[in-house]
Every structure is written in C-alpha cells, then in structure tokens.
Amino acid sequence: MKRVLLLNPPARRKVIRDYYCSKSTKSNYLFQPIDLVMQSGVLAPHCELHAIDAVAQRLSSADCMSEIERIKPELVLGLWGAVSDSEDREFYRRLAERMEAPIFISGEVALDNPAQWLREHDYIQGALLRFVSTGLLEYLATGAPGPDLAVNEGGQIRGGLDPAPAREFSLTYEQAKERWPNMTPMSRALATRCRAGSRPRTRQLPAVGWMMPVSILMVVDLPAPLGPM
C-alpha cells in the first residue's frame, strides 16, 4: 500500500481551505477540511493514510515539515487556498525541495486554468479538480490520471476536469440518512455537494458510510485542543 499524506498546511492566521473556496476566520472554531475528508473515504481501502491539519493543530511551518519527514509519505495531497496563496506557495516549494514524493494539491487556485497553473508551479505534480473524484486513486493504481485529475509530466499536462462525471445524483439529507444509517448530524456536509451553477449534488461512493468517523478523527483527535487564538 502507498503511504499517502493528507495535508492542510500551516498558516500564520486561522484559515479555512475547503470546497474550493478558502477564507480566513475570526471565530474560535474551524470546519473540517472536507476536501481531505472525502478523499480519505476514497483512498483509505487502498492506501496507508496519514493526516496533518496544521491549522487545527497550530503547527508552525518548521514543526509541520518535521512531522511530514517523520511520516515519510510516498505521495502528498495538500490543500492550497487563494486566501493563503503566498504562504502555501512558499511552503510547498520548500517541501518539494526536501522530499522526493510527488505533491498533488486541491484548491480553487488551480481551477480556472489547471494546465497553466501547473506549468507555473512545476514543483507540484498535479491538481485534483473535484474532491469526490477517484482520479487520484486511479493515478496511484495505474500511473495515468483518472477523472478530474490534471498531472504535469515534464511540462506536458495530462488529464483535466471530467465534464460529465459518472453516477452523480441529487440527494437530500433525509435520503442520505436512509441510505447510510450511520450518518450523524455532522454528516450533513457530506450529504450534499454544491457546484457553481448547479443544485446540491453528491457522488455515490462505497466509502461514504464510514467517512464521518474518519473525519471526526482528523479534526477532534488532536494533540492540543482547539481554543481561542
């Protein structure tokens, strides 16, 4: 099994990187990094997963880098937000210099023109353009980009956003609760997926039934509890 790290990188202020719409917050709580939560459900049956939420854990850039080096991932999937663009650029550039594992990102910064963005950030291997996609999983299995994954291979960009994702359907929370009875009220975020210009949608994935326990561990089971900053 490949050792994969799901990473929410450090930031000097409290930022939320999720739903391809990053923002800063003055509140005393943080949302779960839903992009990584969803991908944990896709990847977990096939990979050895590790997770670092450096914002929630209040890790400095140096401490986060040390923790990554301790894990020794074979692939990194990290969040990159427009709200923290300059910080994220510097962090991932230094991370790429310190390890050989390919880095993939998920974030709104790459959505507009993935090919151009990847060429301008050539230390990034690829960008996941829909966080419910199996594209990264298929890449791990075959070496070729799966759906909704753009990959930079020596300056040649392969893959991209799938214009017609398979097996999508509209789903209310009540319908999701009936389909996956182990869902909790916190799982409402997993029940719907909003895309610009479309009604709430979700993708039918076998792992959804146990994504929520994984997400709770990622945010709640931390060395230091969250509190005022």
Your description of this structure?
With 229 residues, this protein is an alpha/beta fold. The protein has a single domain, classed as 3-Layer(aba) Sandwich (Rossmann fold), CATH 3.40.50.2300. The chain has helices at residues 34-43, 61-71, 85-98, 114-120, 135-142, 173-179, 188-191, 211-220, and strands at 2-8, 15-16, 23-24, 47-53, 75-79, 103-106, 126-128, 149-153, 156-160, 168-169, 202-203. A seven-stranded mixed β-sheet has the order 4-1-5-6-7-8-9, with helices on both faces. The chain has a two-stranded antiparallel ribbon with strand order 2-3. Helix 1 (34-43) crosses helix 8 (211-220). The radius of gyration is 17 Å and the shape is globular. The termini are far apart.
Based on the structure given, which CATH architecture is correct? 3-Layer(aba) Sandwich
Sheet with most strands: 7 strands, mixed
Coarse morphology: globular
Alpha-carbon distance between the two ends: 38 Å
Q: What is the helix content?
A: 25-40%
Ranges with pLDDT <50 over ≥5 residues? 184-229
Which structural category do the helix and sheet elements fall into? alpha/beta
Order of helices and strands: EEEHEHEHEHEHEEEHHEH
**CATH homologous superfamily identity:** Response regulator
CATH class designation? Alpha Beta
Strand order of the largest sheet: 4-1-5-6-7-8-9
Give me the Rg, rounded: 17 Å
